[in-house]
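Appendix B. Extra example for self-study. Work through it before the problem class; the solution is given directly after the inputs so you can check yourself.
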Amino acid sequence: MILEGNVWVFGDNIDTDAIIAARYLSTVEPRELARHLMEDIKPDFPKLVQPGDILVAGNNFGCGSSREHAPLAIKGAGISCVIARSFARIFYRNAINIGLPILECPADLSALLPGVDKLRVNLDHGLIVHLQSGQNYQAAPFPPFMQEIISRGGLVEYVKSRLTLE
Amino acid sequence: MVEKILAAKAGKDKVVPGDLVSVGIDLALGNDITAPVAIKEFERFGLDRVFDPEKIVLVPDHFTPNKDIAAAEQAMVLRRFAEKYGIKHYYEVGRMGIEHALLPEQGLVWPGAVIIGADSHTCTYGALGAFATGVGSTDLAAAMAIGEAWFKVPATMRFEYKGPLPQWVGGKDLILFTIGQIGVDGARYRAMEFAGTAVEKLSMDGRLTMANMAIEAGGKCGYVQPDDITFAYLKEKVSQPFEAVYSDDDAVYEQTFSFDVTNLEPQIAFPPSPDNVKPVTEAAGIELQQVVIGSCTNGRIEDLRIAAAVLRGKKVHPRVRLLVIPATQQIYRQALEEGLLMTFIEAEAAVSTPTCGPCLGGHMGILARGEKALATTNRNFIGRMGHTESEVYLSGPAVAAASAIAGKIVHPEEVL
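Solution. Structure tokens for the complete assembly:
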């Protein structure tokens, strides 16, 4: 699967309270959650973000609480993919489980500029291309087990197939 | 220890860090924030049963007693699901507690158990020698259906604390100090083993506090190997047989840290991150508007006893609102019987029924713009307890109680 989009750049240790504050957890609707995405650290973000945009971050993205509302809010905003140098482990699980594409890429992409830089991402190969310069970056591949969950469209579909087999 | 527990549950002789295993779980936990998402996903399976109604725990604790209509409706989703599927361990307001204080108290946690919870602080149960870790709602939904969860076997980091601990220094100070040393991603994806003479002498409540905050270092789990203190705690709580699991003498640790804590000062995490940790003397004088004593980190009976020992016969500073939140109904009752609640009330603190409430900025003590709070909770991210321009400092119960009296952050010795 190939994605292409404008970038938004965030730093290290973006926590789940920053992604979606607890005061908005009274709903489970992704689109409703998206209206408050990143609001506490970038108040105009929910208005500016466009479907198909790509979110770029530093180390330990999604640290803090286990709230699945965080990847749901990102998905609800139409963000196509999150690229970070590393992810906090519960966020990583949650993103895979709900089918939000994420890539762990060791390269430092923090100098990219929102509204200027565009990326093309090949999810199957973990290849990231900076469209303006043609520079390539390689993300870590998923283990086969996770690829199976992703290819089935998330954990629910994976478990459904298991239940059918039984 | 974690490798041995996961190998046993996966039916393998041995697993090594990095292996992916699917294991049967002993318990799956959800709350009023995470379970509604899980229940929505669970319904997509089209099942008329859960894998085992005795191995699922549902606790409405975050926004309860219901803070508004939306919260009330989320709590109702839990209640209806529990009724429909005959969930044995559903704890209603008046009988409940903050989940991570409640489960060990109710005897639902034992050494060697594998427990997942759709709440990041599920790692608390490692204090009893269980493998316990936080997951998301979809993981919970899958576990409720098939009773299994997948894990990547974590590498283990060992933390040795050489004691004795000074007075007024406890489990919270040890874990804050550790997070300050290694950072909020210092143990990312790792198991954290807590050991050494200071931990061996630490009470179960203190150990629960330490394991609770493994997640604040990015850890998958944190644990203390079972010993006499563990078994004394479990006695009369856990009726079912269990086999304790221990680290081998030749266990492989990715990294070992050794800290001499003989002269450790009480620790404070400055906003906006739990790894921004300094000794209390460096925080001295910071003026406060609110102090919170409670949460899954520090709302247990020992925490309340420490706070009451500091507050006895004194008054909370006129500028400060002190909120005391016993973590479970049983702790509340015990605090009442021991006279601790009277001490708090006479000191002019507000005492609340168990709730996560202010810890995550839900309700029961939200901060206004510019306000500063000192809390015995676990996170101090931007806006965590209210307005994005409010600030949260983290400490143990002794410093929190003393600072409530002084109106500013102080070492407990300054008010005694």
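Self-check: The first helix of chain B runs from residue 2 to 10. If your reasoning did not lead you there, revisit section 3.
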